[in-house]
Amino acid sequence: MQLTLVADLTIANTVSDLIQGDVREHLPLERIPLKGDVLGLGTTTSIDNGELTFLQDSVSTSAIWRCVAHDGSIIRLTPGDGSGHFPYVCFTRDATSLRRPVTLDALGPIENRPLQTLVAEAIAQGQRSGMLEIAPIYGVRMLTHWHELVITVASKLCMGQQRRNMKVATSEAGASRAGQSIYDMLQHYRLSPLPPENNIDPIRYLGRAMHWDCCGFFDTEPELGRVTVPQPGAHLHLHGCSTDLAYGGHLHHEHASTRLKQLERLWLYPLQSVSSLGSDMAIENLSYDNGSVHFRVVNSGEMDVSDVGVAVVINDRYSTRRYIRIPWLSAGDDEEFTLPLPLPTGKQVITVIADPEEIVIEAENHRGNNRMDLDVQIP
């Protein structure tokens, strides 16, 4: 089932959600419409690891390429082949009508200038000339040529779990990594016309693929962590593939070794409306008879969820709770459970809680239906 898009940009989780770790929510590839000029980027699961790059496949369709962590290669994903479910992905509807080509000569000298600076200047010039609408987020497509390029590929999802832990506890490992940029923790690769002279270069050399087709987003409020790392000044998040379709990943455009040679094309897309997909777990139809408790777990949200727990508690005694773990529950699906539960004579309170650890990312106003209580009188 594909999504019916009404917003210019749809976000399934956020970059902030991703870097906090333990993302249990996923959007299947099959639910992303790819007709027309669809911009997007994302990250794959911890099972296969890597980045997602959205490229134009033709005038009328777009395609998603998965960038492989262990060697920087890329694989085209095909809806229906079971190859993709994404803990973080953002994508547009068909944005062809929003495309605003940039006149590159107006940007002045381009060589060796920071890519984010060039995009920011292009946005400012477009706004001043009246050719580009003011928007909270701009989609970006570009063809680039590099003197040297450093890319990163996610080699371990939940790479920021230390940050989440440090909200409640400290550890020696956490203290040593807390100050690192998220990109410092990822697999790095270098592309340049010649291999580095330094044989102990910590960045693995990939090859001479210096032309790249890129897609991403420029967020005017990066601190919100929607499509970029939530840091002041981190406006541009860009993924891409070499035009020979040999390599792909996150363009580490701010890396000290990255040097731009030429911009061959730059398109901007003013994205005015943003919608967020979320999860919503619920307990329904709780009953008790013949020594068993019956209930239904419902995923009424818009994201598939994995490895979610359900606790059955008697009289608020959590130390003796029964626990069920659901490996996978797709958006819109439910699962019925019957659990043998002998109870002593008298009044008892049965409580069933979906996701008691609150691992699934849900809006606080959606968590009320995660719990259901039932008073029973045992003769």
- Intertermini distance: 49 Å
- Poorly predicted regions are 157-168, 170-180
Total helical segments:
4
Q: Whole-number radius of gyration?
A: 24 Å
Oligomer: single chain
Number of E-state strands: 24
Overall pLDDT metric: 89
Helix proportion range: under 10%
Please, could you describe this protein's structure?
By secondary structure, the protein is mainly beta. Helices cover 8% and strands 44% of the residues. The chain has helices at 15-20, 115-129, 161-165, 172-177; strands spanning 9-12, 25-28, 40-43, 51-56, 62-67, 74-77, 85-86, 88-92, 100-101, 137-153, 187-191, 204-207, 211-219, 236-242, 248-251, 259-271, 274-277, 281-289, 292-299, 304-314, 317-329, 334-340, 346-354, 371-378. Strands 9, 10, 11, 12, 13, 14, 15 and 16 form an eight-stranded mixed sheet that branches. The radius of gyration is 24 Å and the shape is elongated. The chain starts with 8 loop residues before the first strand and ends with a strand. The model is unreliable at 157-168 and 170-180 (pLDDT under 50).
Reconstruct the topology from this structure.
Blueprint: E1 9-12, H1 15-20, E2 25-28, E3 40-43, E4 51-56, E5 62-67, E6 74-77, E7 85-86, E8 88-92, E9 100-101, H2 115-129, E10 137-153, H3 161-165, H4 172-177, E11 187-191, E12 204-207, E13 211-219, E14 236-242, E15 248-251, E16 259-271, E17 274-277, E18 281-289, E19 292-299, E20 304-314, E21 317-329, E22 334-340, E23 346-354, E24 371-378
